[in-house]
Amino acid sequence: MDPSGADLTRIETIARDTIAALPAAFRTAAAQVLLRIEAWPSPQMLHDLDIDDPADLTGLYEGVPMTEKSVSFPAPFPDTVWLFAGPILTELDERNGVTLAELVAHVTVHEFAHHFGWSDHDISAIDRWWE
User: Fold this and answer.
1) pLDDT tens string 92-115
2) How confident is the model at residue 112, as a pLDDT?
């Protein structure tokens, strides 16, 4: 599946609406993170994460979680949340009863949770999305 520019725009709109709906304290912290919407993850990202199938990576947080930040050790690059339209649309095709808005909101919140210092295990303990 090759996402169109309209797909990227729609996903970005949903993601930004999701961020805007976060509670104030989280919304303020999220404003410091760069949001990037791409069609597919880069080959280098897939290699670095040891992922063979690009459809397996719907989103990615790159940065230093807030719980690990220090003013004495500034990050060399801005924290970034990546959303990948191709994998999101592929997953959407595989899920029954899930809307694009629900899926994008889920991936967005999941990736920003990493920025707030939550691990995948922490997130899965309260988010039963995959069941």
Assistant:
1) 999 888 999 999 999 999 898 888
2) 87
Q: Is the pLDDT of residue 36 over 90?
A: yes
CA distance 115 to 124: 15
**Cβ(88)–Cβ(18) below 8 Å:** no
